[in-house]
């Protein structure tokens, strides 16, 4: 069983517990961990399946969980590239967010900050989204390019109007850009992860096993972790571990997921993506709004009149501080592994399992 999946399923944490958990996972040192250290931590967790986060007596277990949860994708069991790990969100987006909210002098000065912000956000959302569905590299590339271009254009549009129409009111200069940036951040998540509702995502039982089947696997029964017969006796259905799936792919076997094991319930899937989108709206909306409020009152102080340059120092510092607090808050609003009652899903899914509660990776 994938250790990260096991952790998020078994550790039923409250919002406060998740917040404290994320403050550890967002440690910047997790961006520079060596592959060797991560592999040792993963091996320790795999050989200690009963190890939980509450094992305070064993600091090695605690450090292993921290390394695994912060660097490995729970769906694919693969390393998340360093620049797109959760701990990288703050250092990469805070500067571009600050530059995106600077007063507009000309349109050219706004293109690079906006493009940089939405490029990173799009790639981050794709990399940290649900990875259980089938997708090709060119599909992710084309989707990401389209989302980046559209998000950048929509982000520049209000700024273009501000320059063309010479609007200088507080509403047009401060409030509207913050509102649009927050909404576009949420739309960026929905657009960049739009393949999830279309393709469907895998669900797991409480043991973390994913249901799947292969027509050619009759000769590979030794690789099956648990074999059962479907309720309608139409096909063999088994729970396949990620490591087994990789071996089958290397052997050239087609891994097909039966229709009733994929969530094709679009409203449910859109709700799952919408949760992440909501957290992004809160994250970037708050991080852009609070510095503007501080700057509004700071401009009326005597210190600002004597030191006008201090405004940008204040806004940058405020942006970093607010984002430093809001990143773990936004990640903690919803648990990474979502739960759903089997009775709420399609009849095909209900007839395929005796479990009353199923699990899926919500993504970051």
TrEMBL record:
Keywords, alphabetical: Amino-acid transport, Membrane, Mitochondrion, Transmembrane, Transmembrane helix, Transport
Regions that span the bilayer: 140-158, 281-298, 310-334
Subcellular locations according to the entry: Mitochondrion membrane
A molecular function (GO) term: monoatomic ion transmembrane transporter activity
Topology of this chain in the membrane: Multi-pass membrane protein
Record keyword Transmembrane present: yes
InterPro entries given in the database record: Mtc
GO cellular component: mitochondrial inner membrane
Keyword Magnesium: no
One example of a Gene Ontology biological process annotation: mitochondrial transmembrane transport
PANTHER family: SIDEROFLEXIN, SIDEROFLEXIN-4
Family: Belongs to the sideroflexin family.
Protein name: Sideroflexin 4
The species this protein was found in: Capra hircus (Goat)
């Amino acid at each position: 069983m994938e250790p990260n999946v096991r952790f998020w399923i078994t550790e039923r944490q409250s919002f406060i517990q998740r917040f404290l958990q994320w403050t550890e996972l967002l440690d910047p040192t997790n961006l520079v961990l060596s592959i060797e250290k991560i592999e040792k931590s993963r091996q320790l967790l795999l050989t200690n399946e009963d190890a939980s986060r509450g094992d305070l007596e064993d600091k090695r277990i605690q450090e292993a969980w921290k390394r695994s949860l912060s660097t490995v994708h729970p769906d694919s069991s693969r390393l998340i590239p360093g620049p797109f790990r959760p701990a990288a969100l703050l250092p990469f987006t805070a500067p571009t967010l600050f530059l995106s909210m600077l007063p507009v002098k000309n349109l050219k000065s706004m293109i690079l900050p906006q493009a940089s912000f939405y490029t990173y956000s799009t790639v981050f959302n794709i990399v940290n989204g649900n990875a259980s569905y089938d997708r090709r590299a060119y599909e992710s590339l084309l989707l990401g390019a389209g989302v980046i271009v559209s998000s950048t254009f929509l982000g520049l549009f209000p700024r273009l109007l501000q320059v063309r129409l010479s609007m200088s009111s507080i509403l047009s200069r401060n409030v509207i850009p913050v509102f649009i940036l927050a909404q576009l951040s949420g739309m960026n998540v929905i657009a960049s992860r739009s393949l999830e509702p279309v393709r469907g995502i895998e669900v797991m039982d409480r043991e973390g096993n994913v249901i799947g089947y292969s027509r050619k696997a009759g000769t590979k029964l030794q690789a099956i972790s648990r074999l059962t017969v479907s309720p309608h006796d139409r096909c063999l259905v088994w729970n396949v571990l990620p490591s087994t799936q990789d071996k089958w792919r290397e052997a050239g076997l087609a891994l097909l997921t039966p229709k009733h094991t994929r969530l094709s319930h679009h409203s449910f899937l859109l709700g799952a993506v919408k949760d992440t989108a909501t957290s992004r709206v809160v994250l970037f909306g708050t991080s852009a709004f609070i510095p503007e409020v501080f700057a509004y009152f700071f401009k009326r102080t005597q210190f600002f009149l004597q030191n006008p340059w201090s405004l940008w120092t204040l806004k940058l510092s405020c942006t970093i501080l607010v984002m430093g607090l809001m990143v773990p808050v936004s990640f903690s609003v919803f648990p990474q592994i979502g739960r759903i009652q089997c009775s709420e899903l399609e009849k095909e899914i209900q007839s395929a399992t005796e479990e009353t509660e199923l699990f899926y990776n919500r993504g970051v």
